[in-house]
Amino acid sequence: MSHTTFYVTTPIYYVNGDPHIGHAYTTTAADAITRFHRLAGRSAWFLTGTDEHGQKVLEAARARGLEPQAHCDAMVERWKAMMAELGIGYDRFMRTTDPDHVAVVQGALSRLHAAGELYRDTYTGWYSTAAERFWTEKDLVDGKCPDTGQPVVEITETNWFFRMSAYRDRLIAHIEEHPGFIRPASRRNEILGFLRKELGDLCISRPKERMSWGIELPFDPDFVTYVWFDALLNYLTGAGYRADGNFDDSGRWPADFQLLGKDILTTHAVYWSTMLMALGVELPRALFAHGWWTADGVKMSKSLGNTIDTLLLKEAFGLDATRYFLLREIAFGADGSFSYEAFLARYNSDLANDFGNLAHRGLSMTAKWLGGEVPPIGELTDLEQRLRRDATVAVREVDLHLGELAFQKALEAVNALVRAGNKYIDDTQPWALAKAGDDARLATVMRHVLEVCNVAAALLAFVMPERCATLLERLGQDDVGAAFRDVRERARIDELPLDALREGTPIEVGEPLFPRFREMPGVIAERLEPPAPPRPAADPTISWEDFAKVALRAGTVVSAEPHPAADRLLVLRVDIGEPRARQIVAGIADRFRPEALVGRQVVVVANLAPAELRGVRSEGMLLAAGGKAVVDLVTVDAEPGEIIR
Ligand code: ME8
User: Fold this and answer.
1) Nearest atom, ligand 1, residue 26 CA
2) Concatenated DSSP letters for 226-237?
3) What is the pTM of this model?
4) What is the pLDDT of residues 353-370, one digit of tens each?
5) CB under 6 Å to ligand 1: residues?
C-alpha cells in the first residue's frame, strides 16, 4: 500500500472534563495544516477524537453518578461542540469506544500475544490515577507523581506486559537516523536521554476486579487493556488499519504529522513507536511536541482548573481571530503564557490595524475613485517591483515554514507583506493621485493594493477560513482553493503573484473585516481584575559598553528541584549549549512548581560570577518579569547557547 494522503492526528482527549484552550490549540493547529494541504489540492485526512477508557474517565463518571458509557456519550457532545465552534474540519472523530477501534485493539493484542511479545507477571509499583500509569519509587517527586504532582498509591498485582525493552536499541537507532521524527529538535535529545538510561517493559493491562472500564484482553478475560495501549492504536484505526493487521487502500499510513503536547511525548515516542515495531508497522514520519499554554507559569489543565475557555474568546473576538491568535502568538514547540491583554493587543495590531485596514483601504478607495472594479495595471515603478518581490517572498516563506509547522513564522511572513501593502499606500498616496486626476497611476496603485489583499487572504485562509473567504469574495474570487493555488503557482514559477485578479471584476466594500476594539470586550472585561498600579519612574540610563558586558544566552531547563535548605529557591540545571548544563539557583519557588519548568526555554545571564546560595552553588541567573514577586520567566524560542542582545 502506498502513502498517498497527507495524514495528521491530534491526541485523543480524555473525557474527564471540559475542553479548554490547550485542546483547542492542538486541534486548531491540526485543522490548519490539513486545510493548507487541501487548499493546495492535496488529498488530506485529519483525525481527532476522545480517549474514553481507563480509571480517570471512570472516576469522572462516578462523580456524576453515571455509567461510564453514558458519561462518555454526554461528554463527547461537548468536545464536538467545541470543535464545531472553532471551525475544525476533522475527517473522523474517533471514540475509543467505537466498535471498529475495539476490534483493532483486540486484533493487535491477539497477534502480539501469539508472537510472544506479551507475558504475564506480578509487579509492585506506585500508581498515579492522574497520569494513568505506574512509577518506580525513584521516579517519584516528593512521594508524588512526577508528571502531575498528584498522590500515588502502592499496588501489587498480576498483569500482562509488553516486551518493550527489546526494542530500545532499534528505537534509538531510528531516532538517530531520522532527524525529523521527533520535533522540534530540542525534544529529540530529551527522548534519547530517557532511552539511554534504561527501558523496562510496559504493563498493558488492568485487572478487571480493580478497573473494568476498558477493552477486554482477547486472550485473558480477567483483564482489560491499559488505556494508553488502547488509545495510541486509535491512530491506526483512523488510518484504515484493520483487526486482521492489514490496511485498507486509503493510503494514509504512515502519518505525516502526529501533533501532541510535550506532556505526552514519551508515551508517543517510546510506547507508540515500540508498539508499532512489534506490530511490524512503519513508524509515523513526525511526532511534533508543542509547548504549553500556561497561566502564571503553570500549565493550564483540567485538573488544576486554571484554564481559558476558547469559546469565550470566540464570543468576544470571533472565530478567525481566535484561531489566528493561537497559532501566531507562540512558536509551535515553545510554551507561552496566556493573557487577554496580549490577545487584544495582537488582534488590534495584526488584524484590525494591518490586515483589516489594508483590505478596507483597498476596497473603499477602489469603489470611490475607480468605479468599484478591479482596475488595469499600467507602468510599474520601483515601488511596485518591490511589492511584487515582497509578495513572492511571502508565498515562498509560508510554504517553507509550514513544512516545519512553524505557524508563527508563516503568519509573520504574511503580516510582513500586509505591512508592506499599507506602507505602499502611504508612499503612493492614492488620495493625491485622485485629486490630481492621474487615473492611470491611481489604477496601477489600487490594483496592487487589491492584489496584496488577494495574496494575503489566500495565504491566511488556512488559519482564518471565514474572513479570508469573505475578503476573496469581495475581490471577485469565489473559490478560495483556486485563488490559493493560483498565487502559489505564480510564486513558484516566478510569474508574479500580484497579477492574479481579473481586470474589470466588480469588487464589494462591505463592513470592516476586523473592527478595532478600543477596550476589552465586555464578556471578558467582567472576568478581569482591576488594572495593575502604574509602573515606577524611568530607570537611570547606562552606556552600551556597560550593557554589552552582560552575556545573555538562550537555555533550556533540563531539571528542576526544590532547594534542600530554602523554600523560596529552586535548583535548576539549564542547558546553554555548553558541554555541561549550568546549575542555577533561582528564587522562583513561590511561582513555579519544579516539574512545570522542565523543558522551558529561558534566558540566562551566563557571565554572572558564581555564588553560593544557602549552600548550593549557582552559576548564572535567569531573567524574569516582576519586581520582588516573580510574575513570569522570560522565554525565548532559540537553540540553547544562542546569543541574546
Ligand atoms: O493526554 N497547553 O489527554 P488529555 C497546550 N488522552 N496543550 C494542551 C494543554 C496546555 N495547557 N493542555 C492540554 C491525554 N493540551 C491522552 C492522550 S493520545 C493517544 C492520548 C493538549 O485530555 C495537548 O495536545 O490530557 C495535550 O497533549 C493534550 O491536550 C492532552 O489531553
Assistant:
1) 24
2) -HHHHHHTHHHH
3) 0.81
4) 999 999 999 999 999 999
5) 11-14, 22-23, 25-26, 51, 231-232, 260-261, 263-264, 292-293, 299-301
